[in-house]
Amino acid sequence: MRHLTVQENRWAFFALVSVLIFIMTLSGCARPMTRTEQVLFGGMIAAQAADGWATDRYIGIGGTELNPMLGERPDTEAIALLKVGTVLTLWGMGEVWPDHREAFFTVGIVSGGMAAGYNDKLYEKYKGYQYE
User: Fold this and answer.
1) What is this structure's pTM?
2) Residue 16: other Cβ atoms inside 10 A
3) How far apart are alpha carbons 65 and 26 in whole angstroms?
C-alpha cells in the first residue's frame, strides 16, 4: 500500500474540511452554543494554538514532527493550517451533531494540550543540543 505524500495529505485534509463545511451549510446551523460549550470552544482554540506554537518552537531547533500529515520538518504555515483545520473540523462536527459538542471540544483541548506539553518538554530537553 502506497502512503500519501505530505502534499497529498494536506489536500486530503483540505477536502475533508471543505466537505464538512458543505454538509454544515446544507443542514443549517445547529442550536446556539451553551455557556459551557463556549468556554470549551475557547479552551480548544487555546490548546490547539499552544500546540502549534510549541511544535513550531521545537522544530525551530532541529526537532522533528510525528504527525504524518505534516512530514518531519513542516513550516509554520503548514502547522497553522493543520491547527485551524483541526478547530474547524471539531467545530463543524459540533454543528452537525450538537448534542456531542462538549465531547468534540474536549477532544480538541486534550489533544492540543497534551501535544503542546510534549513538544515543550522536548524543546526544553534538546534546546542546547546541536543537530546535524
Assistant:
1) 0.77
2) 13
3) 36
